[in-house]
Amino acid sequence: METASPTATVTHTAALARLGHALSDPTRAGILLVLREAPAYPSDLADALGVSRQVMSNQLACLRGCGLVDAIPDGRRTWYRLADGHLAPALDELLRLVLYVEPGCCAGDECGCA
């Protein structure tokens, strides 16, 4: 059995787990994909993704907690952006990668991975 790379630390594992958690929800994944294009206000994100403002607020709180988005005060409103400049290109690379994944794999309750 091969050993893990010396650069694979507990911190790296935790960071990937947070990203995986964020991407595991379609609304959160949608938020990240929209924000990779440009910063946005929560109301605009809610409209774009077809969810309520309460759902958007909860999902943005989760993404903030994961360290993936920043909330920027703007007068009485707050807009959101990706927390790190490396995240947008990483999401672009992930989008290229998923084109090779079997389309029916992990399709909700019919997932055969578990």
TrEMBL record:
Residues 8-102 form the HTH arsR-type domain. CDD domains: HTH_ARSR. SMART domains: HTH_ARSR. This is Transcriptional regulator. Transmembrane segments: none annotated. It comes from Leifsonia poae. It holds the Pfam family HTH_5. InterPro entries: ArsR-like_HTH (IPR011991), HTH_ArsR_DNA-bd_dom (IPR001845), HTH_Metal-responsive_Reg (IPR052543), WH-like_DNA-bd_sf (IPR036388), WH_DNA-bd_sf (IPR036390). SUPFAM superfamilies: Winged helix' DNA-binding domain. NCBIfam families: HTH_metalloreg. One of its GO terms (molecular function) is cadmium ion sensor activity. One of its GO terms (biological process) is response to lead ion. PROSITE patterns: HTH_ARSR_2 (PS50987).
